[in-house]
Specification:
- The protein is 73% helix and 0% strand.
- By secondary structure, it is mainly α.
- Helix 1 packs across helix 3 and helix 2 runs antiparallel to helix 3.
- 18% of the residues are buried.
Protein backbone atom coordinates (compact mmCIF):
# COMPACT_ATOMS: atom_id res chain seq x y z
CA UNK A 1 0.00 0.00 0.00
CA UNK A 2 1.38 3.39 -0.96
CA UNK A 3 2.07 6.38 1.28
CA UNK A 4 -0.96 8.32 0.01
CA UNK A 5 -3.24 5.35 0.62
CA UNK A 6 -1.91 4.98 4.18
CA UNK A 7 -2.64 8.65 4.82
CA UNK A 8 -6.15 8.21 3.42
CA UNK A 9 -6.65 5.11 5.56
CA UNK A 10 -5.49 6.97 8.68
CA UNK A 11 -7.91 9.82 7.95
CA UNK A 12 -10.74 7.34 7.47
CA UNK A 13 -9.95 5.64 10.80
CA UNK A 14 -10.14 9.05 12.51
CA UNK A 15 -13.45 9.79 10.74
CA UNK A 16 -14.96 6.72 12.42
CA UNK A 17 -13.12 7.21 15.70
CA UNK A 18 -11.18 3.94 15.54
CA UNK A 19 -7.46 3.10 15.50
CA UNK A 20 -7.49 0.47 12.77
CA UNK A 21 -6.61 -2.46 15.02
CA UNK A 22 -10.27 -3.27 15.68
CA UNK A 23 -12.10 -6.09 13.97
CA UNK A 24 -14.83 -5.56 11.37
CA UNK A 25 -17.67 -5.72 13.94
CA UNK A 26 -16.23 -2.89 16.01
CA UNK A 27 -15.57 -0.78 12.91
CA UNK A 28 -19.14 -1.36 11.72
CA UNK A 29 -20.49 -0.28 15.13
CA UNK A 30 -18.37 2.89 14.97
CA UNK A 31 -19.69 3.60 11.48
CA UNK A 32 -23.29 3.05 12.57
CA UNK A 33 -22.83 5.42 15.51
CA UNK A 34 -21.52 8.22 13.26
CA UNK A 35 -24.05 7.49 10.51
CA UNK A 36 -27.02 7.62 12.88
CA UNK A 37 -25.80 10.86 14.46
CA UNK A 38 -25.15 12.60 11.13
CA UNK A 39 -27.86 11.08 8.92
CA UNK A 40 -29.50 13.70 6.65
CA UNK A 41 -32.98 12.60 7.76
CA UNK A 42 -32.08 13.41 11.37
CA UNK A 43 -30.50 16.74 10.44
CA UNK A 44 -32.54 18.23 7.59
CA UNK A 45 -30.88 21.22 5.97
CA UNK A 46 -27.58 20.72 7.84
CA UNK A 47 -25.00 20.33 5.08
CA UNK A 48 -22.17 19.78 7.58
CA UNK A 49 -23.93 16.73 9.02
CA UNK A 50 -24.63 15.44 5.52
CA UNK A 51 -20.93 15.79 4.63
CA UNK A 52 -19.95 13.93 7.81
CA UNK A 53 -22.42 11.18 6.94
CA UNK A 54 -20.97 10.83 3.44
CA UNK A 55 -17.40 10.87 4.81
CA UNK A 56 -18.32 8.14 7.30
CA UNK A 57 -19.88 6.00 4.57
CA UNK A 58 -16.84 6.42 2.33
CA UNK A 59 -14.52 5.69 5.25
CA UNK A 60 -16.37 2.51 6.16
CA UNK A 61 -16.40 1.24 2.56
CA UNK A 62 -12.69 1.99 2.05
CA UNK A 63 -11.66 0.39 5.37
CA UNK A 64 -13.68 -2.76 4.67
CA UNK A 65 -12.15 -3.10 1.19
CA UNK A 66 -8.68 -2.64 2.71
CA UNK A 67 -9.34 -5.21 5.47
CA UNK A 68 -10.59 -7.77 2.93
CA UNK A 69 -7.48 -7.21 0.82
CA UNK A 70 -5.03 -7.92 3.64
CA UNK A 71 -6.51 -11.27 4.70
Amino acid sequence: IGHKNLMKLDRYYRTLGVTGTEDAKVIKRAFMRVAQKCHPDKNPGDMRSTEKFIDARNAYEYIMKYKKGIR
